[in-house]
Amino acid sequence: MSAQSSVARRVQSLQRWPDWLAKPLMTLAFTRMVPFAGTAGVRFEQWDGDGVCLTLANKRKVQNHIKSPHAAAMALLAESASGAAFAWHLPNDKLPLIKRMDIRYVRRATGGLKVRAWVTPEQQTQLQSEERGSIKVAIELTDSLGEVPIEAEMEWAWVTR
Predict the structure, then answer these.
(1) Largest CA-CA distance found in the chain, in angstroms, rounded
(2) Structural domain count, the chain
(3) CA–CA separation, 33 and 14 (whole Å)
């Protein structure tokens, strides 16, 4: 494997702090790169080599007309988590690009949302060894009842900078 990504190095430098400070710092670092995620209120719970866990509270600014999380808010959360998990393993000389988002809304979401995303060891090897390509980053999004309101597949591509 090649050198650790600059994203991983930056996030690890924040993780030396206690959780009550590290989590807001990780959120701030991400939302400076992706301001829209900050506008919506995306929050980091975990960001490391094992994956990413993000949350989104069911506040008015992300609700639809029936007071549940908006479809676009769920898509943003899934895309943000998959992108953060992808970026952790992406070599510094590669540019990340979202290639495809396939989302199927299967039930109404209740309350806040939590999403987990991860890159498999095989995908990590592919990211390190290929000049360009794409992978489907696994995600699992649940609502406050533990139900799965969406089934999503996020395909991320990379090219040499």
Answers:
(1) 48
(2) 1
(3) 16
- This prediction's pTM: 0.92
Is residue 1, in this structure, part of any structural domain at all? no
pLDDT in tens, 56-106: 999 999 999 999 999 999 999 999 999 999 999 999 999 999 999 999 999
- Do residues 35 and 57 lie in contact, with contact meaning Cβ atoms separated by under 8 Å? no
- Give every CB contact of residue 49 below 8 A, 6+ residues apart in sequence: 8, 88, 89
* Structural domain containing residue 142: 6-160
Query: Number of C-alpha atoms within 13 angstroms, CB side, residue 76?
Result: 22
Residue among 4, 87, 81 at smallest CA distance from 46:
81
- Domain of 106, CATH number, reads 3.10.129.10
**Would you tell me how many other CB atoms lie within 10 Å of the CB of residue 155?**
16
